[in-house]
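Can anyone check this?
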Amino acid sequence: MRKTLVLLFGILVPAAMIYIAVTGYNVVFEPNVNEAKLPYKLFVKEGTTAEQLYAQLLEDEVLLNPQGFLMLAKNKGLAKVKSGHYVIDQGMSNNTLINALKAGLQEPIRITFNSADNLADLAGKLGKQLLADSTDLYKALKAPMDGWEGPLALGAFLPDTYEVYWNASAKSIANKLYQNTIAFWTPARIKQAEAMKMTPGEISTLASIVMKESSKATDRPLVARLYLNRLQKGMKLQADPTVIFALNDLNPEQPVRRVLTRDLKLEHPYNTYVIKGLPPGPICVPEKAALLAVLEAPKHDYLFMCANPDNPGYHAFARNYAGHLVNQRRWTQWLDSQKIYR
């Protein structure tokens, strides 16, 4: 009997040890991610604990065999996870994933924006895509950028797609956008602007007006040249978007769908029906395409334009005021027919 017990003990104990070793190996090194959920994008906020992370992975069914993950995480000293954006992909084991989280081996993300009405609007758009909140982003965007201070600030941040870390600081995000603007203004483009007797800031200001005047890619260069023609002749720009900007500046809560005759007399530094030349700065964050529409505007001799009711989104152009009055009358009649009075 005793020999039998010894024999059984000699067999079972090693077998148990082998089982424990194999199980332990699997817990640590075997792939443990649910392929149906991959790639899984994990966004970790500052202060997230291993337990909170584990709960999220359980809820989203990311782990094939959840048992052992939390114990291994604690054994490896993962109490709080470094903030960032992590991608869980094929073949990852508990060990690989925990090491990445512990070391903060995050993946960059792509953020994008097309334009923005003001810096607060831009901060809000960025804040929806990043860990940094819109308040901190707004403060960073408001910091003076060399060459784009004061009223020119809206031209300092070029709309584009950027690759950044999700938990990047607000200051680094603002600087990345600014550096892209600096990169856009190559010596060749600065020379283009100089040939037009304009600065990059003035090109940016005009581009913002062109953007607000037209949303059509083929219409914008024609609009840009019309404004350039007016500037060269010393005429007032008389751009409705600048009037709308002025009205919104004075009363942000009042939407403007139609510019009235009385609005054209509004005393405001951005009202180009009152001032000569360009306003002090951009009226929105201008896109790259709008900047190029100004820099590469095709030659024509139009001096007047009006929204074209027969071709929504485009303009009807005229070389003289008589032709403009005809276009203007058609547009006014269309607005009245749609009952758009403000």
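Reply from J.R.: I decoded it. The CA atoms of residues 154 and 285 lie 5 Å apart.
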